[in-house]
UniProtKB/TrEMBL annotation:
Residue span(s) of domain Helicase C-terminal: 217-378
Name this polypeptide is given: ATP-dependent RNA helicase CshA
Gene Ontology terms, MF aspect: ATP binding; hydrolase activity; RNA helicase activity; RNA strand annealing activity
Family: Belongs to the DEAD box helicase family.
Every Helicase ATP-binding domain range: 35-206
One GO cellular component term: ribosome
Length: 530
């Protein structure tokens, strides 16, 4: 497989430093194709799905186009949801770590607009926003496009599905014609091509459509955790399942080094593998892992290429992979040669949405699991130790040991059971810290929805001049859930029923309880059975 280094793409040194800090080692196909074209100033139509690295593909050239001395707005990125706008802003800020004087601001509904206005007035060169909120600022004249030289439409098909076409066209008409326009979309329906034809000039078309990948037959689980608890949960899972050999994947070299240090400090035989290792070090680490001297290998995706060890019984995704394909490559390293394989993924906050994308892309089932309690871990560890004790009793001469135990019992005020329990505790070691455990999805019962969905009631309908598109746009925009996942919307005069996937229902109810639709506060709750 041909690879491209970021150093080959004409990227300036401060951004290259940030890329290294972020843990990226090679450019993805969309990055390798799009970055040089964008740097040349040409318009682009890019067909790329979520999980291909497209944010960096447009974010890097965008940053290089900004004049830090000019405090006026110079670039606008439109995204379908507030969650995506925040993600894009976060990544662009990381890429700009070593650039000085560049301000990035996400603007979206649901946040107090006065705060956004203050930030805009203070001087912001890059705005990432949902079309509706950008239009709101245009009406208030709090965004001025006079100096804008670059516009990016990210997930353009999703924005059209959510009914934003008119807003998008209004924004594009208001931006100076002498600009660079970049459009990314997972699909290329006619409306997308119409926008490209109308608002772009001789755009270069880039297609990076990810191939279908087959996921091996592996038991796959995920655990929702808090960042501070990731180390503890990983250790509990290792103790619980006690794999002969296991691979732990991190997204950055820094995280690999930190996690190896933690694991070794807790007494595990762990080694790290990443791109900074010299070949001699890499060979030593791999030989130790193959020979079983190292039980746990912690690695980045790029460094793990070419690892071919049949006895890997478990893969742990300490970080959710940055690319959907990485997930398949990671878990494919277990369950080989007819053996049983398990894959465990630790998910923090909104990463659960990314995992759902991976699940849909891979056409596989990743099952939510409760975090093992200390009682669970203790019971499993005790059972394994007692199995070993049973083997020793059946296969070895214990006469001398029995005499020693009898002598101690006769001399002290405790029983053989007390001694056995003390030995068991010594063997198992100390229990680790307690952690907050997240409850699994709520059971909403039968709400009259299709299988896998929850039907929700919203107290707003046609008489409030509300359309189904307003409901869809509000839910997708407020929660960050892809609009295409929202099911049927049944609207009546004074209320509406909408179906959402069961795994998103709690988030939708929680986030939407303080939301407004068409300026009206709403109440949202699980519906009664039809």
């Amino acid at each position: 497989m041909q690879t491209t280094k970021f150093e080959e793409l004409g990227i300036i040194e401060p951004i290259l430093r940030a890329i290294v800090d972020m843990g990226f080692e090679e450019a993805s196909p969309i990055q390798a194709n799009a970055i040089p074209i964008m740097l040349s100033g040409k318009d682009i139509v890019g067909q790329a799905q979520t999980g291909t690295g497209k944010t960096a593909a447009f974010g890097i050239p965008l940053l290089q186009a900004i004049d830090p001395k000019n405090k006026h707005l110079q670039a606008v990125v439109l995204s379908p949801t507030r969650e995506l706008a925040i993600q894009i802003a976060d990544e662009i800020r990381k890429l700009a770590t070593f650039l000085h004087g560049i301000k990035v601001l996400p603007i979206y509904g649901g946040q107090e607009i006065s705060k956004q206005i203050r930030s805009l007035k203070a001087g912001t060169q890059i705005v990432i926003g949902t079309p509706g909120r950008v239009m709101d600022h245009m009406r208030r004249k709090t965004v001025k496009f006079d100096d804008v030289k670059l516009v990016v439409l990210d997930e353009a098909d999703e924005m059209l599905n959510m009914g934003f076409r008119e807003d998008i066209e209004t924004i594009l008409k208001d931006v100076p014609e002498e600009r660079q326009t970049v459009l990314f979309s997972a699909t290329m329906p006619k409306p997308i091509m119409d926008i490209a034809k109308t608002y772009q000039k001789e755009a270069e078309i880039i297609r990076v459509v990810k191939k279908e990948l087959t996921v091996p037959k592996i038991e796959q689980y995920y655990y929702e955790v808090k960042p501070k608890n990731k180390e503890e949960v990983l250790c509990r899972l290792i103790d619980m399942y006690d794999p002969k050999l296991s691979l732990v994947f991190c997204n950055t070299k820094k995280q690999v080094d930190e996690l190896v240090s933690v694991l070794q400090g807790r007494g595990y035989f762990a080694e790290g593998l990443h791109g900074d290792l010299k070949q001699q070090q890499r060979d030593r680490v791999m030989n130790s892992f193959r020979n079983g001297k190292t039980d746990i290998l912690v690695a980045t995706d790029v460094a793990a290429r070419g690892i071919d060890v049949d006895d890997v019984e478990a893969v742990f995704n300490y970080d959710v992979p940055q690319d959907d394909e990485y997930y398949v490559h990671r878990i494919g390293r277990t369950g080989r040669a007819g053996r049983t394989g398990r894959a465990f993924t630790l998910v923090v906050g909104k990463e659960v949405y990314k995992l759902k994308d991976i699940q849909r892309y891979c056409k596989t089932k990743i099952i939510a699991q409760p975090i093992p309690s200390m009682n669970d871990v203790t019971a499993v560890k005790a059972e394994k130790i007692l199995d070993r004790v049973n083997n020793i009793i059946n296969s070895e001469d214990l006469t001398k040991m029995v005499e020693i135990i009898e002598a101690r019992v006769n001399a002290e005020d405790y029983t053989t059971l007390d001694i056995a329990a003390a030995f068991l505790k010594m063997t198992m070691g100390e229990e680790n810290e307690q952690i907050e455990e997240k409850e699994s999805y709520m059971d909403y019962g039968d709400t009259g929805a299709e299988a896998g969905m929850v039907r929700l009631f919203i107290n707003i309908g046609k008489k409030q001049n509300t359309r189904p598109g307003d409901i869809l746009g509000a839910i997708a925009g407020e929660t960050g859930m892809p609009g295409k996942l929202i099911g049927s919307i049944d609207m009546y005069d004074k209320y509406t029923f909408v179906e959402v996937p069961r795994e998103y229902a709690s988030d939708v109810i929680q986030v939407m309880k303080d939301a407004k639709i068409k300026g009206k506060s709403i109440n949202i709750e699980p519906a009664n059975k039809k």
